[in-house]
Amino acid sequence: MRTLITIIITALLTACTFEDTMKPFDLQGHRGARGLLPENTIPGFLHAVDLGVNTLEFDIVVTKDQKLLVSHEPWFHHNISSKPGGTPVTEEEQMSYNIFEMTYDETQQFDVGKRGHTLFPKQEPMEVNKPLFLDVIRTVETYTENKNLSPVAYNIETKSSPDLYGIYYPYPETFAQLLYQELSLLDEEFDLFERIIIQSFDPATLIEFKKLNQDIKLAMLVADERSVDTYVSLLGFTPDIWSPNFRLLTPEVISNAHALGMKVIPWTVNTVDDMHGQLEMGVDGFITDYPDSAAVLR
To answer: Which fold has domain 4-75+129-296?
Structure first.
């Protein structure tokens, strides 16, 4: 017998259209489907699409030759990466493999999937590389069209930190311009802008991106207890989405964000119990490593 929450989310997900990708509930696959397949990889994104996510969430960094690469860190993390000779990248050396100082071709000598991930025992190992941002979008768009699936939205995190500008990350203005150039190209191919969200923990990249396009949705990622109003003041505008660690959410925070016109989409909600709890508080979506678990709620 289905619970009331199950019935509610079934109705919400069934009703969702992409005229507005944020209505009425946005199920986002974190780094694709990190709990099931290697993170931020094309196989993981396609699997998330097959599981019925509304939005693919992923991260981008910049290579030495100014290509946008899909990667959570601007280096090769020791948990998942293998060097060109096949030996694992160690924790001590991982940050020396600085993607900002590597060409795209150099990054393709590293594997990021065949070892699996010790923190995600259900993840299926496979040989795979970090993909280009352009290749991810083009592959997913072709896949959904060929399979006659509804188009998905894309929640793109600009990895950025002020203390690492010019070392591991480009400066915010450059980052925003590089991303906007590629998005503009993709929009010509796939009419993409209305399905794009740009998110960041660094307000500076969101500020710079808003200068380039006033209409693309922006999400403020939050990992601390500073208030909604504090972040709105830092940005100088109200973002479209408030996206905190789900453990920071209370009904009062959600109510405040909604009063300012923001959607609330927390990260990273991985258990069915936590999914129920977030739904009961009134979130507008959530980001999860396990979109297959979220599908059970339907």
So the answer is: TIM Barrel (3.20.20)
